[in-house]
Specification:
alpha+beta, Immunoglobulin-like, four-stranded antiparallel beta sheet, 2 helices, 7 strands, binds 2-acetamido-2-deoxy-beta-D-glucopyranose
Amino acid sequence: MAALVKSFIVILLFSLINEGMCQEKCATIDLQIRQEKTGKLVQAKPEFQVRVLNACPCLQGNVTLDCNGFQTVEVENPVTLLRSGNECLLNNGSFLTPFNEVDFVYAWDTEFPFKPLSSNVKCD
Ligand SMILES: *[C@@H]1O[C@H](CO)[C@@H](O)[C@H](O)[C@H]1NC(C)=O
Ligand SMILES: *[C@@H]1O[C@H](CO)[C@@H](O)[C@H](O)[C@H]1NC(C)=O
């Protein structure tokens, strides 16, 4: 019983410390990128829908993804995905709110492995 209480206190302390270290807790890695085929064909290439979830309890702005080698036949909406060189800016640089996602579509022969590059984490 005492051990149980002790471990409860340890967990409580740990979560308090964690709370204070929100900035560290939310890394670029806290973006979850999922994609799937929509079933649509664009110029005979499959269309993919990409969903980027902000998986941390803070705002993340100026989110960029690695776009090195990314190709699409579908015209991109620059507000959702603005490409500059090997980087793609998501959501026009605006904040992604905690646990919400933004999505965009593209069409190519193969699925492109988007990876998060950077973001501005803002915790209040
Ligand atoms: C994005 O970056 C620009 C330029 O560095 C900055 O002015 C802007 O406040 C940033 N926006 C967000 C949402 O972090
Ligand atoms: C995208 O961001 C730029 C610069 O921050 C701003 O001038 C423009 O109005 C934004 N576009 C939209 C559609 O929000």
